[in-house]
């Protein structure tokens, strides 16, 4: 029996759902591995199922590590505009047999998530321009 490779699986997904490019799926797979390693380390090297929220947090950390201030530009290029898009990618992989889910997992786990501007742009802004910064905190020049 021929085992289907990740690349073959993605080609099938992209034929059915062309919203996100190959690189977006590859990134989510890498971010999942990054998240699993972090969760296992925190649990004394015991692997366990990753929740949608944990994966979103892992995606944020991995994206910042990989792309830094270019994260939003990369995601926009990949048609990823909200956390919901990550859920669509994850569940396309689940439906293709590349990932497994529990009965509690659903696309709704990726709704809401975090605001992309706050998560990926705000950390690179000067403190006076960050969300929640007091508007009167600037020191007047003499």
**Individual helix count:** 6
List low-confidence stretches: 136-142
Which structural class do you get from the secondary structure elements? mainly alpha
| Cα gyration radius (Å) | 18 Å
Output the helix-strand order.
HHHHHH
Number of strands: 0
Helix fraction bin:
40-55%
Mean pLDDT: 90
Main beta sheet strand tally, sense and closure: none
Tell the overall outline. globular
The span between the termini is: 78 Å
Strand content: under 5%
Question: Could you list some keywords that capture this structure?
Answer:
142 residues; 0% strand
Structural write-up:
This protein has 142 residues and is mainly alpha-helical. 52% of the residues lie in helices and 0% in strands. It has a domain of 89 residues. The longest helix is centred in the N-terminal third of the chain and has 21 residues. The C terminus is likely disordered.
Give a brief outline of the structure.
This protein has helices at 6-16, 22-42, 52-67, 71-77, 83-95, 116-121. With 142 residues, the protein is mainly α.
